[in-house]
UniProtKB/TrEMBL annotation:
Keywords: Hydrolase. It comes from the Bacteria. Gene3D superfamilies: alpha/beta hydrolase. GO terms for molecular function: hydrolase activity. Residues 29-263 form the AB hydrolase-1 domain. This is Alpha/beta hydrolase.
Length: 281
């Protein structure tokens, strides 16, 4: 449920599209970027924590609730476009630079943003971006990619057939393991359902998947915190390994007792790690 602090949903027009966002607090801006099958509500419990010391903004990415959604819209995995949306959003809000805190496919978008707009990033915090291109040349990387493809295939096939209920369940269990969907709260499952069309758009997309490379990571000049869940799939751990190798100024923190969705599964430990990192830079 949304806290009163973030109940006032605002709208900003970016490149002819409407983006919903909530904000709270004062001070240096922190912008929160959600992952797949999510929207600004993913950060509801984090908003009041960050707002104690910062101006915090959580927005919904293109083709995510409550913005216009369609299976013909922008795929969730179009990280390059979502990254440019983030740049345009900051400009529209009059923010020259910000602390960027991002999860999963939102973190993938934040990597593109930070590589292409390094001057706009004060610090970068990314949790397990699905930047699969980093594994292509890594030792054993192709095997990890094949294993992940097989693990995620049931979700993709269900979304291709418009079987949204099955797709949501398979998606949750691919990233979090068996039983993950059933452990999600009613509000979390509603948020997933509200954003199912972005996953359908991803499953049926014909546009090439954007490739985030080690050379692009080397362009990111901001101090970067990379977080992992200790129970996350090997796919995400190996991607983080590569990011740690490639990013110039990076710190890695593993959050115990969590799988891929670290901010949702271990919110207190996550917020403490993030706020401590931001305060130290």
């Amino acid at each position: 449920m949304a806290p009163a602090i973030g109940a006032d949903i605002k709208q900003v027009s970016v490149n002819g599209k409407q983006f919903a966002y909530v904000e709270a607090g004062q001070g240096d801006p922190v912008v929160l970027v959600h992952g797949g099958l999510q929207d600004y509500r993913f950060w509801n419990s984090h908003l009041p924590v960050f707002a104690k010391s910062h101006r915090v903004i959580a927005y919904s990415r293109q083709n995510h609730f409550p913005n216009a959604t369609s299976k013909d819209g922008l795929p969730d995995g179009a990280a390059d476009v979502h990254g440019e949306d983030l740049a345009a959003l900051l400009a529209a809000l009059g923010i020259a630079s910000a602390h960027i805190v991002a999860h999963s496919s939102g973190a993938h978008a934040a990597l593109f943003f930070a590589a292409n707009h390094p001057e706009a990033v004060r610090t970068l915090v990314i949790n397990e971006p699905p930047a699969a291109a980093l594994l292509a040349g890594a030792p054993g990387g192709n095997d990890v990619l094949k294993q992940w493809g097989a693990r995620f295939a049931p979700a993709r096939q269900a979304f291709e057939k418009d079987d949204l209920d099955a797709g949501l369940r398979f998606f949750a269990e691919a990233v979090g393991g068996p039983g993950t969907y059933d452990r999600r709260s009613e509000s979390e499952r509603k948020m997933m359902a509200d954003n199912a069309l972005s996953a359908v758009a991803d499953a049926i997309a014909t546009r090439p998947r954007p490739m985030f490379t080690c050379d692009m990571a080397k362009r990111i000049s901001a101090p970067t915190l990379v977080t992992n869940g200790d129970h996350s799939p090997e796919f995400f751990h190996r991607i983080v390994d590569e990011l740690v190798r490639c990013l110039p100024r990076r710190t890695r923190v593993e959050i115990s007792g969590s799988s891929h969705t670290v901010p949702g599964e271990a919110p207190q430990a996550y917020d403490e790690a993030v706020l401590s990192f931001i305060a130290s830079h």
